[in-house]
């Protein structure tokens, strides 16, 4: 395919030139483009012959742009980026990656990831808007089943016949939130067996029993009963029931960054599974928008 200019420069020559102008290293450029190093060198020499002047200064130690090379890069880079955006946009429209994609999350760590991915996604697919919103733990799948969300990232386990389970996005160590004055707060770590010595604060609402059993067990691994206290509908209620009422509740380690308070201590578990957050979406509504956004998050 012939491209810009009276010199009839090939498009692949432009791509090789821009990659080398960024990397300033022939081996890294060849690896980046999936080309043999000799092919990169030949392409640059051919381009320089077309233009009539050197574009790079080459020594045994370094590769640098000449003044002409710098000017050519400044002129070509925005044109090349515009071309790529145009192609991406055409592909996106062909695949149906348009309209509005509504994505849910149940924790602030996940929100960070999704918001960053949304920025990248909007840049790549400008005809598809992304709306990111919180999902309450007390109704983890209601917005998906009600059509208010297209997909979400939520805590595992998920075992719902009408929902498709996608890849894990975040995996975090599990900790136990305890009152700051509790004897557990003075320990370096706690065990799942220690839950028998405390009152566990569970989540209330339309939550699957298997999910509750996983995060808020009624018995320890050895079969010792675990007392349950008042159930909470919102995360802030859990924090209050721990800090002010003396209960305990599991959480992921990174949650402390967002919810730290002086009356709550965060003690690591030494034998508990990680808290895993993964994609889930209705099995009947998977589409190109969903797949493209999942791929964007995985790439990040």
From TrEMBL:
Signal peptide: none annotated. InterPro entries: LysR_HTH_N, LysR_subst-bd, WH-like_DNA-bd_sf, WH_DNA-bd_sf. Keywords: DNA-binding, Transcription, Transcription regulation. CDD domains: PBP2_LTTR_aromatics_like. PROSITE patterns: HTH_LYSR. It comes from the Bacteria. The keyword Calcium does not apply. The keyword Transcription applies. Residues 14-66 form the HTH lysR-type domain. Belongs to the LysR transcriptional regulatory family. PANTHER family: HCA OPERON TRANSCRIPTIONAL ACTIVATOR HCAR (PTHR30346:SF0), TRANSCRIPTIONAL DUAL REGULATOR HCAR-RELATED (PTHR30346). This is LysR family transcriptional regulator. It comes from Streptomyces tanashiensis.
């Amino acid at each position: 395919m012939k491209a810009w200019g009276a010199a009839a420069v090939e498009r692949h020559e432009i791509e090789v030139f821009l990659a080398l102008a960024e990397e300033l290293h022939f081996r890294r450029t060849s690896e980046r483009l999936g080309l043999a190093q000799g092919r990169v060198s030949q392409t640059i020499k051919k381009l320089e012959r077309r233009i009539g002047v050197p574009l790079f200064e080459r020594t045994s130690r370094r590769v640098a742009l000449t003044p002409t090379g710098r000017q050519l890069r400044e002129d070509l880079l925005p044109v090349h980026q515009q071309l790529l955006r145009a192609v991406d946009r055409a592909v996106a429209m062909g695949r149906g990656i348009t309209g509005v994609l509504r994505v849910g999350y149940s924790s602030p760590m996940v929100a960070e990831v999704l918001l960053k991915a949304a920025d990248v996604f909007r840049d790549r697919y400008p005809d598809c808007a992304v709306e990111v919103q919180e999902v309450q733990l007390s109704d983890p799948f209601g917005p998906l089943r009600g059509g208010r969300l297209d997909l979400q990232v939520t805590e595992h386990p998920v075992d719902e016949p009408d929902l498709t389970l996608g890849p894990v996005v975040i995996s975090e160590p599990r900790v136990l939130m305890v009152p700051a004055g509790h004897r557990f707060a003075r320990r370096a770590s706690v065990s799942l067996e220690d839950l028998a010595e405390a009152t566990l604060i569970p989540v209330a609402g339309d939550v699957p029993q298997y999910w509750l059993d996983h995060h808020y067990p009624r018995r320890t691994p050895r079969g010792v009963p675990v007392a349950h206290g008042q159930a909470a509908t919102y995360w802030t209620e859990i924090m209050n029931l721990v800090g002010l009422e003396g209960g305990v509740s599991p959480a992921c380690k990174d949650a402390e960054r967002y919810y730290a308070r002086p009356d709550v201590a965060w003690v690591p578990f030494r034998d508990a599974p990680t808290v895993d957050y993964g994609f889930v979406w209705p099995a009947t509504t998977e589409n190109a928008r969903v797949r493209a956004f999942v791929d964007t998050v995985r790439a990040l």
